[in-house]
């Protein structure tokens, strides 16, 4: 009998077929993703926004807010009452709270706020869980950055949802 017996040849053939199939599926994945442009998390349900999306970046929220204000000024309209509401909070993180570009712990750090500082809060959203709290506040007092609500104590009413 030859050095490669019949069962060994079949195993090698099966392995080659499986490897080829895996390679074909891997190569086809980018094409399938391009055919369906909606993000993976929004294909089945569109109820919860992805906290890592650019839609929730602090700079995008600032641009949207400024565009709304400019449009209202051009039309001579007063701002809606909800946007005039000044939400405040006090930083309780010691020695300081890190501010981020998006409501995630892995996003870029854009600044910090010292313990005890009173901050203006524009709105709140859900994001990464920080010590059991998944709420994040968009600070609007010149920073336009996200801070974890775990480390910001509300002063007065809770902020509106973004």
Task: Please tell me about this protein's structure.
The chain is built from 4 helices and 7 strands, in the order H-H-H-H-E-E-E-E-E-E-E. Mean pLDDT is 74; it is low at 28-52. It is α+β, with helices and mostly antiparallel strands and 162 residues long. Strand 4 (118-130) and strand 5 (133-139) form a beta hairpin. 35% of the residues lie in helices and 27% in strands. The chain has helices at 6-35, 40-43, 58-75, 81-84; strands at 87-91, 96-100, 109-114, 118-130, 133-139, 145-148, 152-155. The longest helix has 30 residues, at 6-35.
SSE topology:
Elements: H1 6-35, H2 40-43, H3 58-75, H4 81-84, E1 87-91, E2 96-100, E3 109-114, E4 118-130, E5 133-139, E6 145-148, E7 152-155
Antiparallel strand pairs: 1-4, 1-7, 2-3, 4-5, 5-6
Structure described in brief:
The chain is α+β, with helices and mostly antiparallel strands. It is built from 4 helices and 7 strands.
